[in-house]
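Field guide to reading this record: the first block holds the primary sequence, the second block holds the structure written as discrete tokens, and the final block holds curator observations. Each block starts with its own label. This record concerns Lipopolysaccharide synthesis sugar transferase, catalogued under organism Lacticaseibacillus manihotivorans DSM 13343 = JCM 12514.

BLOCK 1 — SEQUENCE
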Amino acid sequence: MFLVVNFLLGVYVFYNRRVSDIIFTTVLGQIITIAALIMITFIGRLFAFPRMVLVYSFIVSVIVLCIWRVMVFFVYLRFTSNQRVVVLANETELPAIVQNFNSAKNNKHKVTHVITANFVQNAHKVINDVDIFYLTKSLSDDDRRQIIDLALKHEKQIMLTSTFDNLLMLNPNLMNFEDESVMGIRGFRITPENAFFKRLFDIVVALLMLVVASPFMLVTAILVKVTSPGPIIYKQVRITMNQREFHILKFRTMTADAESKSGPMLAQAHDSRITSVGKYLRKLRLDELPQIFNVLRGDMSIVGPRPERPFFVDQFNAEEPHYYLRHNVRAGITGYAQVYGKYASDYHSKLKFDLLYIKCYSIFLDAKILLQTIKILFDKVSSQGLDEDEEPSFDKLEKIVEENDIIHLQ
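BLOCK 2 — STRUCTURE
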């Protein structure tokens, strides 16, 4: 259990990590392991010992594991080589890409070169100075093929963006017809047998969550009622599997007349419509707890794409031809995009995460996302709304290029 919990929490992944992340996941992993041990020994009556043994075990294990894992982390930083990345893209794509690689948590993958024109010729120039070729959709098929051949010949790594074409090729169905080997493309749907076990997983986890969350739901309901006028539970029409409408349940975090004048709009980073208690409920995701009942009713899953409102779904469907594919599964309380992306990401970025989740779905992945969700409850960035000031810009790109000595080839 210890190994499974820590593996699902990502304890043994060191890239894109900070010391604080390692310490936090260690503490969280031990809390979950000790809690599970208490339940197992209580239910099974397998053995008994003084409760202080669990306290001592938690304290000692946290201290020893934190020291050990931080030591391993510094050994990893010291003795593994940095990965030098060259980004091949047009100038409009560069700001967001370079800014993501320049994250403070990114400890091994550093952009050292950017190429915005004459891709093949410039790739030959930098082949001995980089370790990874990051290829975007702006490259022509011929340029892409030549650069991939060049990278493979020189044993360089290749990174590709999550375009629809690339996502489509994930988990192919390999088939053979005499001398012909073919790859059958799988659609963005979960198989019937996986759908059955996913629904079973949802019901079991939802019932357990209901038992654990009941005290928090009671306290939250009281706080919402006494701090602002209006209903405790906020109902809103959302879209789930097969574009079906349903009423999502949430603890109200905004004023009762939040959209009476503005109409439907996405939450902003510093939204004046959010109540004083509401902003804390959003940070801790406590406003989402009533959605456990949506899961039990079959409107939602524990894990899946976050449900959007019909107004925005119609808008996104008109702008993005593949947006409808995310509705091939039930909407979820948490999801791949919420764990591995940012709350403030635009719907294009979230769609890539959602399609990646559907393509790579497994019960194991659901369990991993569920545990990873606990971590982001304490991540301020993941609970913020959209903020226009944070959009990548060419000014920021030029500053990043100068500060990090990135070579720009055109």
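BLOCK 3 — OBSERVATIONS
The two ends are 53 Å apart (CA to CA).
The chain has three domains: 2-79, 83-161+392-409, 192-379.
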